[in-house]
């Protein structure tokens, strides 16, 4: 069965973040009871209609074990993405891991750009303008809230 494997051999603390609009970085830790030669392989599907893709650029530890992955050209869709991880070892079966993730929830947004400040000392007011950061999943401003912290010298 797909969930067979030695207890504690599967990965732990799996997480992903999308940054710079189209790069996704996923990381995990080796299972606490995984054999020393365990190697993990990460796959994901953007949607049910898409083919699964294996990581092309693994991040390795000092023992050459895969403990992270960088995906390029990621686009965020409306469905949850499906991630799954297989492991291999010559000593035992490794537990399978899978998870569904809403990609828009893991996107780390860039700060606003083209910030301008125009102050009128006579009227004692300022106009502050900016452009919202570019994001991969929406062209609307409805989900953006900004906080301005003004400090006087």
Automatic annotation (TrEMBL):
The annotated topology with respect to the bilayer is: Single-pass type I membrane protein
What is the originating organism of this protein?
Answer: Orthonyx spaldingii
Q: Provide GO CC annotations from the record.
A: external side of plasma membrane
Q: What protein name does the entry list?
A: CSF2R factor
Do you know which PANTHER family this protein is assigned to? CYTOKINE RECEPTOR, INTERLEUKIN 5 RECEPTOR SUBUNIT ALPHA
Q: Give one Pfam family, short name only.
A: IL6Ra-bind
Which parts of the sequence belong to the Type I cytokine receptor cytokine-binding domain? 13-106
Among InterPro entries, the record links this protein to: FN3_sf, Ig-like_fold, Short_hematopoietin_rcpt_2_CS, TypeI_recpt_CBD
Name the encoding gene, please: Csf2ra_2
Which UniProt keyword terms apply here?
Glycoprotein, Membrane, Receptor, Signal, Transmembrane, Transmembrane helix
């Amino acid at each position: 069965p797909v969930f067979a494997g030695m207890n504690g051999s599967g990965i732990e603390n799996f997480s992903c973040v999308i940054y710079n609009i189209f790069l996704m970085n996923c990381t995990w830790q080796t299972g606490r009871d995984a054999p020393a030669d365990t190697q993990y392989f990460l796959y994901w599907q953007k949607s049910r209609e898409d083919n699964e893709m294996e990581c092309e650029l693994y991040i390795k530890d000092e023992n050459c074990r895969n403990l992270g992955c960088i995906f390029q050209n990621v686009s965020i869709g409306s469905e949850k993405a499906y991630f799954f991880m297989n492991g291999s070892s010559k000593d035992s079966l490794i537990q399978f891991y899978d998870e569904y993730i809403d990609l828009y929830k893991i996107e780390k947004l860039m700060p606003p750009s083209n910030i301008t400040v125009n102050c009128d000392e006579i009227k004692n007011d300022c106009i502050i303008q900016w452009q919202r950061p570019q994001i991969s999943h929406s062209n609307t401003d409805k989900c953006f809230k900004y906080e301005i912290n003004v400090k006087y010298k």
